[in-house]
Design goal:
The complex is a heterodimer of chains A (156) and B (120).
Chain A lengths: L12 H16 L6 E3 L10 E9 L3 E9 H12 L9 H23 L4 E2 L3 E3 L9 E10 L2 E10 L1
Antiparallel strand pairs in A: 1-6, 2-3, 2-4, 2-5, 3-7, 6-7
Helix pairs in contact in A: 1-3, 2-3
Chain B lengths: L1 E5 L3 H13 L6 E5 L2 H11 L3 E4 L8 H10 L6 E5 L4 H10 L4 E3 L4 H8 L5
Parallel strand pairs in B: 1-2, 1-3, 3-4, 4-5
Helix pairs in contact in B: 2-3
The chains are: A alpha+beta (156), B alpha/beta (120).
């Protein structure tokens, strides 16, 4: 970890939960109460999609959001005020879940006052390469009963 | 009142515009720009009354857009809507001549409380 970045404000799952709750309450659900810690055994993500945004500097800070495709589509519909069951294009899916990761990463960056620059979100079927990175936080959350993972990594 | 909303995310542009409408600015004539370079061209072409811009965008960032405008003597009122709201970013925005910085996530109330004192 760099000496210039104070990681203490994010070193447990609660700050990531708080950021995610704020984001969903204001921009997705229009009211609080739908995001919480996942209760019980951590589930597998069905048809998983992984979205990540980095704070690029000497060390890379990476926020990775994991959802099932269906959950990601529900998030996209909510963000775009689409009708339930309305078809979600890949372009809208990538844009919407990318913005979720972007907002979470931006808020993490603000909490730790990291000097780096946010990268453009990447969305993929597989997790990002994390190499010898150190996972600082790994939270499994529930949004309307569906699993949503949020993890924070520092890469050398 | 002509306004340009600049963000590389189409989803976020829609959310920003929707939130502006919810905040009561439904009479604004809003044009979208997909990055800083696109916004710069549209500002030069249409001379808007206000620019609301993301910070991190490909081609030209929001802060580079603002600095480019001020460097050419363009004093169009300008503000940021961005996912980073650290004191350092706010200081940079202020020094470059931005009116304010709204951090994502935001609400219509936050938009109204922040924008009204500057753009009535």
């Amino acid at each position: 970890m760099t000496a210039t970045v104070d990681w203490a404000p994010v070193l447990d799952a609660d700050p990531l939960l708080q950021i995610t709750q704020d984001l969903f309450a204001t921009m997705i659900d229009d009211e609080p109460g739908y995001v919480s810690h996942w209760e019980g055994e951590r589930p597998e993500l069905e048809d998983a999609r992984h979205t990540w945004v980095d704070v690029a500097d000497e060390q890379i800070v990476r926020v990775v959001i994991g959802t099932g495709r269906e959950t990601g589509e529900a998030i996209t519909r909510a963000l775009l005020r689409m009708a339930p069951g309305e078809e979600v294009t890949d372009e809208d899916f990538v844009d919407a879940v990318g913005e979720v990761a972007n907002v979470v990463c931006g808020n993490v960056k603000s909490l730790v006052t990291h000097p780096g620059t946010l990268t453009i979100p990447v969305v993929a079927d597989a997790p990002p390469p994390l190499g010898d990175g150190e996972r600082l936080v790994d939270a499994c959350l529930s949004w309307r009963g569906a699993p949503l993972t949020v993890s924070l990594w520092v890469l050398p | 009142m002509k306004v340009i909303v600049a963000d590389d995310s189409r989803v976020m542009r829609q959310i920003v515009i929707r939130t502006l409408r919810q905040a009561g600015y439904d009479w604004w004539e809003i044009e979208e720009a997909e990055d800083g370079a696109d916004a710069l061209a549209k500002i030069r072409a249409t001379a808007p009354d206000f620019v609301l811009s993301d910070w991190n965008m490909p081609n030209m960032t929001g802060i580079d857009l603002l600095r480019a405008l001020r460097a050419e003597g363009n004093e169009t009122p300008f503000a940021f809507v961005t996912s980073e709201g650290s004191p350092q970013m706010r200081e940079q925005a202020d020094e470059a001549g931005a009116l304010f910085l709204i951090a994502k996530p935001f609400t219509a109330d936050i938009f109204r409380e922040t924008i009204d004192p500057f753009i009535g």
